[in-house]
Amino acid sequence: MIEKARRGVRGLLDRIRPARIHPTEPPSTIVDDDGREIQIRPYRDETFAGLIEMYDTFDPEQRAQGTPPIRRDEIRAWVEGLLAGVNVVALHEGRPVGHVSFVPDGTDRHELAIFVHQEYQHAGIGSELMANGLGFAREQGIRYVWLTVESWKRGVQRFYSRAGFSTINPMGAAHRMSRTL
User: Fold this and answer.
1) Any residues with CB less than 8 A from the CB of 67 and at least 6 apart, and which?
2) CB count, 10 Å around CB of 55?
3) Distance CA 100, CA 114 (A)
4) Rounded to 5 degrees, what angle do the CA atoms 26, 28, 33 make?
5) 66, 70, 145, 173: most buried, per Cβ within 10 A?
Protein backbone atom coordinates (compact mmCIF):
# COMPACT_ATOMS: atom_id res chain seq x y z
CA MET A 1 0.00 0.00 0.00
CA ILE A 2 2.81 2.39 0.90
CA GLU A 3 4.64 1.48 -2.31
CA LYS A 4 1.55 2.28 -4.39
CA ALA A 5 1.17 5.66 -2.67
CA ARG A 6 4.88 6.43 -3.14
CA ARG A 7 4.62 5.70 -6.87
CA GLY A 8 1.51 7.87 -7.14
CA VAL A 9 3.31 10.79 -5.48
CA ARG A 10 6.35 10.24 -7.68
CA GLY A 11 4.17 10.22 -10.80
CA LEU A 12 2.53 13.49 -9.73
CA LEU A 13 5.90 15.11 -9.02
CA ASP A 14 7.23 13.93 -12.39
CA ARG A 15 4.34 15.70 -14.10
CA ILE A 16 4.89 18.90 -12.13
CA ARG A 17 8.69 19.09 -12.39
CA PRO A 18 10.05 16.30 -14.53
CA ALA A 19 13.77 15.61 -14.23
CA ARG A 20 15.75 15.85 -17.46
CA ILE A 21 17.47 12.72 -18.73
CA HIS A 22 21.03 13.54 -19.79
CA PRO A 23 23.25 11.20 -21.83
CA THR A 24 25.79 9.34 -19.71
CA GLU A 25 28.21 6.63 -20.70
CA PRO A 26 27.82 3.08 -19.45
CA PRO A 27 28.58 0.98 -17.59
CA SER A 28 26.79 2.06 -14.46
CA THR A 29 25.17 0.44 -11.48
CA ILE A 30 22.11 1.91 -9.83
CA VAL A 31 19.76 0.97 -7.05
CA ASP A 32 16.25 1.35 -8.42
CA ASP A 33 13.29 2.76 -6.51
CA ASP A 34 12.42 -0.76 -5.33
CA GLY A 35 15.89 -1.32 -3.84
CA ARG A 36 17.16 -3.64 -6.59
CA GLU A 37 20.72 -3.32 -7.85
CA ILE A 38 20.63 -2.83 -11.62
CA GLN A 39 23.68 -2.94 -13.89
CA ILE A 40 23.48 -1.01 -17.15
CA ARG A 41 26.05 -1.83 -19.81
CA PRO A 42 26.52 -2.25 -23.55
CA TYR A 43 25.05 -5.45 -24.99
CA ARG A 44 27.27 -8.56 -25.11
CA ASP A 45 26.56 -11.76 -27.01
CA GLU A 46 26.15 -13.80 -23.83
CA THR A 47 23.05 -11.70 -23.08
CA PHE A 48 21.18 -12.88 -26.19
CA ALA A 49 19.28 -15.79 -24.61
CA GLY A 50 18.29 -13.61 -21.66
CA LEU A 51 16.93 -10.93 -23.98
CA ILE A 52 14.83 -13.54 -25.77
CA GLU A 53 13.49 -14.69 -22.41
CA MET A 54 12.74 -11.12 -21.30
CA TYR A 55 10.75 -10.42 -24.45
CA ASP A 56 9.06 -13.83 -24.34
CA THR A 57 7.63 -12.95 -20.90
CA PHE A 58 6.78 -9.36 -21.88
CA ASP A 59 3.13 -8.43 -21.23
CA PRO A 60 1.36 -8.38 -24.64
CA GLU A 61 -0.78 -5.48 -23.39
CA GLN A 62 2.35 -3.33 -23.20
CA ARG A 63 3.44 -3.90 -26.76
CA ALA A 64 4.08 -0.74 -28.78
CA GLN A 65 3.25 -0.68 -32.48
CA GLY A 66 3.41 -4.46 -32.68
CA THR A 67 6.67 -4.87 -30.82
CA PRO A 68 7.96 -6.93 -29.25
CA PRO A 69 6.48 -9.78 -31.27
CA ILE A 70 4.57 -12.45 -29.39
CA ARG A 71 5.90 -15.75 -30.76
CA ARG A 72 9.37 -16.85 -29.63
CA ASP A 73 10.72 -17.44 -33.17
CA GLU A 74 9.53 -13.96 -34.20
CA ILE A 75 11.08 -12.47 -31.05
CA ARG A 76 14.39 -14.09 -31.94
CA ALA A 77 14.38 -12.67 -35.49
CA TRP A 78 13.29 -9.23 -34.22
CA VAL A 79 16.08 -9.10 -31.60
CA GLU A 80 18.63 -10.18 -34.21
CA GLY A 81 17.49 -7.20 -36.30
CA LEU A 82 17.88 -4.84 -33.34
CA LEU A 83 21.42 -6.08 -32.81
CA ALA A 84 22.41 -4.53 -36.15
CA GLY A 85 22.56 -1.27 -34.20
CA VAL A 86 23.92 -0.01 -30.89
CA ASN A 87 22.40 -1.73 -27.84
CA VAL A 88 22.48 -1.27 -24.08
CA VAL A 89 20.90 -3.57 -21.51
CA ALA A 90 19.76 -3.27 -17.90
CA LEU A 91 20.50 -6.37 -15.83
CA HIS A 92 19.20 -7.52 -12.47
CA GLU A 93 21.18 -10.41 -11.00
CA GLY A 94 22.67 -11.02 -14.45
CA ARG A 95 19.29 -11.26 -16.19
CA PRO A 96 18.10 -8.65 -18.73
CA VAL A 97 15.20 -6.52 -17.46
CA GLY A 98 15.53 -3.63 -19.91
CA HIS A 99 16.92 -2.96 -23.37
CA VAL A 100 17.47 0.11 -25.53
CA SER A 101 18.45 -0.18 -29.17
CA PHE A 102 19.49 2.32 -31.85
CA VAL A 103 18.86 0.71 -35.24
CA PRO A 104 20.28 2.33 -38.40
CA ASP A 105 17.55 3.24 -40.88
CA GLY A 106 19.80 3.51 -43.94
CA THR A 107 19.82 7.33 -43.95
CA ASP A 108 22.56 7.98 -41.35
CA ARG A 109 19.83 8.16 -38.70
CA HIS A 110 18.88 5.65 -36.03
CA GLU A 111 15.50 4.51 -34.75
CA LEU A 112 15.26 4.14 -30.98
CA ALA A 113 13.42 1.31 -29.26
CA ILE A 114 13.36 0.97 -25.47
CA PHE A 115 11.64 -1.65 -23.35
CA VAL A 116 11.63 -2.33 -19.62
CA HIS A 117 10.03 -5.56 -18.41
CA GLN A 118 6.73 -4.91 -16.63
CA GLU A 119 8.07 -6.25 -13.31
CA TYR A 120 10.72 -3.48 -13.34
CA GLN A 121 8.76 -0.49 -14.61
CA HIS A 122 8.15 2.72 -12.63
CA ALA A 123 11.30 2.24 -10.58
CA GLY A 124 13.70 4.61 -12.40
CA ILE A 125 15.30 1.96 -14.61
CA GLY A 126 13.93 3.35 -17.89
CA SER A 127 15.39 6.80 -17.22
CA GLU A 128 18.83 5.39 -16.40
CA LEU A 129 18.69 3.00 -19.35
CA MET A 130 17.78 5.87 -21.68
CA ALA A 131 20.58 8.07 -20.31
CA ASN A 132 23.18 5.31 -20.70
CA GLY A 133 21.83 4.35 -24.11
CA LEU A 134 22.02 7.91 -25.43
CA GLY A 135 25.53 8.33 -24.04
CA PHE A 136 26.76 5.08 -25.55
CA ALA A 137 25.09 5.84 -28.90
CA ARG A 138 26.83 9.22 -28.98
CA GLU A 139 30.15 7.55 -28.10
CA GLN A 140 29.60 5.13 -31.01
CA GLY A 141 29.15 8.03 -33.44
CA ILE A 142 25.37 8.20 -33.67
CA ARG A 143 24.23 11.79 -34.22
CA TYR A 144 20.48 11.69 -34.99
CA VAL A 145 17.88 9.51 -33.25
CA TRP A 146 14.15 9.22 -33.95
CA LEU A 147 11.19 7.19 -32.77
CA THR A 148 7.45 6.96 -33.15
CA VAL A 149 5.01 6.85 -30.25
CA GLU A 150 1.24 6.43 -30.26
CA SER A 151 -0.51 9.79 -30.04
CA TRP A 152 -2.59 8.77 -27.02
CA LYS A 153 0.45 7.75 -24.90
CA ARG A 154 1.03 11.15 -23.29
CA GLY A 155 3.10 9.79 -20.39
CA VAL A 156 5.48 8.07 -22.78
CA GLN A 157 5.76 11.27 -24.83
CA ARG A 158 6.67 13.19 -21.64
CA PHE A 159 9.35 10.57 -20.91
CA TYR A 160 10.90 11.08 -24.35
CA SER A 161 10.67 14.87 -23.96
CA ARG A 162 12.61 14.58 -20.70
CA ALA A 163 15.31 12.81 -22.72
CA GLY A 164 15.56 15.73 -25.16
CA PHE A 165 13.24 14.47 -27.90
CA SER A 166 10.97 16.92 -29.70
CA THR A 167 7.84 16.08 -31.63
CA ILE A 168 8.46 16.67 -35.33
CA ASN A 169 5.27 15.13 -36.71
CA PRO A 170 2.25 15.34 -34.40
CA MET A 171 -0.24 14.06 -36.99
CA GLY A 172 -2.11 10.76 -37.07
CA ALA A 173 -2.14 7.81 -34.73
CA ALA A 174 1.63 7.91 -34.10
CA HIS A 175 3.83 10.93 -33.46
CA ARG A 176 7.41 11.08 -34.66
CA MET A 177 9.94 12.47 -32.20
CA SER A 178 13.67 13.06 -32.68
CA ARG A 179 16.81 14.54 -31.19
CA THR A 180 20.46 15.03 -32.05
CA LEU A 181 23.27 13.72 -29.85
Assistant:
1) 78, 113
2) 23
3) 4
4) 130
5) 145
Contact 119, 97 (CB under 8 A): yes
On whether the CB atoms of residues 138 and 23 are closer than 8 A, the answer is: yes
Tell me the pairing of strands 144-150 and 110-116. parallel
The pTM score is 0.87
Q: Count the neighbouring beta carbons within 10 Å of the beta carbon of residue 124.
A: 18
Structural contact between residues 12 and 120, judged by C-beta atoms closer than 8 angstroms: no
Residues 11-69: pLDDT tens digits? 665 555 568 898 988 999 999 999 999 999 999 999 999 999 999 999 888 877 778 88
Q: What is the mean pLDDT of residues 82-101?
A: 97
Spatial distance between the Cα atoms of 69 and 20, rounded to a whole number of angstroms = 31
